[in-house]
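BUG: 3D viewer hangs when loading the predicted structure for this chain

Environment: internal workstation, default settings.
Expected: structure renders.
Actual: progress bar stalls at 90%.

Input used:
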Amino acid sequence: MTLQKDPEQNEPKYLHRHADLAGKRVLEVGCGDGRLTWRYAGVARHVTGIDLDRDSLRVATIERGSDVEDKVAFAQADSVRLPLAGAAFECAILAWSF
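Structure tokens produced before the viewer hung:
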């Protein structure tokens, strides 16, 4: 049996209800394999997803659709020491990050 996270789609429902991501530059901390990223990337201006897990980032990169390829980037990084000098974001998302 595989574990399915959020089969009721509560994460994107509440995310879109409480955050207007349309046209925004978004930092997603703990993006993992991009499971949540794909649910809002289409409306965002640009998304930078960071995670410590290299394998998850590899999956996210592979699963990145061609429709968002130019506006979604991933980096292996620690949220305490962001290697994004000069980058500006209008919104940050932390889901399942601890």
